[in-house]
Each structure stands twice: as C-alpha cells, then as structure tokens.
Design a protein that fits this description.
With 83 residues, the protein is of the alpha+beta class. It has one domain. Helix content is 19%, strand content 42%. A 5-stranded mixed sheet has the order 1-5-4-3-2. β4 and β5 (74-82) form a beta hairpin.
Length: 83
C-alpha cells in the first residue's frame, strides 16, 4: 500500500497508460510534475486499490489523476483530466 502522506516518487516504480492520458492532453511529464509539486489523495470508494490524485503541474494547471496501486511500490496512472 502506498504511503501517500510521505510520498516520494523516487521510491516507486511509476507506470502510465499513455494512450488514455494523451486523449486528455496529459503527458507522463505532467503526471510527474504533479507528484513532485505536492498532492492531495482520495481513496476510490468503488475500487480499493485506486486513488484520485489531485495536484498542479509546474505551470499551475490543476489535474485530477487516477492511480492504481499494484503493491510492491508499483503504481500506474491510468487516466486523468484537467480541473
């Protein structure tokens, strides 16, 4: 399980569903910027291993991302959108 309160992107294997993110005009670099700039995380009520990750890119664009926790420090960002 991810410790979101002390989240350090360097300590995780981070993957991306680049096709789904690209449809929403979000790049893997945007996701990484959000992770480094500080995040607010809400656990998904329906899927226990999914999280809503909210934050901003370096340019200040707010994003909401959906992350799946696969355990063993492996996270995949499957989609997202601009808020």
């Amino acid at each position: 399980m991810v410790n979101w309160t002390r989240f350090d992107p360097n300590r995780y294997d981070i993957e991306f569903n680049e096709a789904k993110l690209a449809v929403r005009d979000i790049s893997p670099a945007d996701v990484m910027q959000v992770l480094w700039n500080g995040i607010h995380v809400i656990r998904d009520k329906k899927y226990r291993n999914r999280y809503r990750v909210l934050g901003r890119t370096d340019d200040g664009h707010p994003l909401e991302l959906i992350a799946v926790d696969f355990g063993k420090r492996r996270i995949r960002f499957i989609t997202g959108w601009h808020v």
